[in-house]
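Appendix B, record 7
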Amino acid sequence: MRFRLVKRNLLALLGVSFVVVTLLFSTRVLIVSDNDTSGPSNVVQVNRGIHSDEVVKFNFGSLPELTQSVYNANYKQCVHNADKFPGEPQLVLVVQVHNRPEYLRLLIKSLEKAAEVHSFLLIFSHDYFSKEINAIVQGITFCKVLQIYFPFSTELYPNEFPGQDPRDCPRDISKDSAVKTGCLNAEHPDSYGHYREAHITQTKHHWWWKLHFVWERVHAMQGYSGFAIFLEEDNYILPDFFHFYKSMIEFRKNTCPDCDMLALGNHNGLTDFTRLYNKVLTTGWMSTKHNIGMAISREVYYKLMGCSNEFCTYDDYNWDWTLQHLSGTCIPKPLKVLVAQGSRVLHTGDCGLHQKENCRPEWASQKVEEGLKMAKDGLFPPSLTLNGAEAVEHKAHMKNGGWGDIRDHILCNNYAKRL
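Structure tokens (predicted):
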């Protein structure tokens, strides 16, 4: 019944007058039980995590069964290995996962080698659902693991919004032609005259939904006062990742209390690591530099939540460029970030959203192993040194488009609704 209701209500998105009611209802399904009577006690019960002996069974047999599995998993929030590793997590890592299992295996391999990993909570947020990826994640035995599932994945809506409806306007059709043909979103091209592509819009949707779900809905995060560090499936962490994180926390407390965020990674890899192994700098947050190993506190999450409408309507399909736009506009004081110059997060992916061919994870693995041999003497530094303090200011940029459809704006905005 739950699947049929969500499906029917999402179909109503095709008429703008029904959008708000539709998505409010759909979002509500994520957070309340079938017996909800709108009382506070029911909402509290939703977030009860369960232990690994009560694993939610995923059924891939049909689209309705898969959708029901997704909603059940988000409702029950099974924490794997909870009995083996009791107590509150010392660090929460949130990994956004699509469909690159070999890179995901590399990330998990690096996590297994990380010092004190047994004290972590790993949250894997999926927008692609497969037996292989579930098996990889559920094979983790070295710390607590929670899987959450993006319920508006294009996989669950292959022929309708938020997937690609066959009645949607083609990407490159002119607006005049679109209006004449009567395609669904004719009135809402992006800033460059292009119409939405579902596989392009999904990453920003998933990132914003994940941010809300992690901080607002995940039971295991209630009472957690540390940072949540956001990774992607094609990242690789160094063995002293947690040690360096704790050093950054201490450094921030003593030297940079106005630093809003941490960046444990950068895009320089292990270049010059032996010189920069214990160096940090402070600067304004920039998309192209600080979107890897990004650590966000609950306080910063609330700042972002206050800018939900601006995030959700800004015509850029990239979450990180959108975040840079918010820093210094909707968020009056630009976000200040404390950056690890000797990166503790590596980017292994040689393919992704725009490149699908010639993906060679085995080359990435070899490159990482060779780099770590050279970097090993710089791991676990006893203290950190400030190597620069750059200006913290708003950095304007040319928006990339791809996010002009009003349906995307409304769906995105409703992730933040508290019902």
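Remarks on this record: The mean pLDDT is 87. The chain has one domain: 63-351+360-415.
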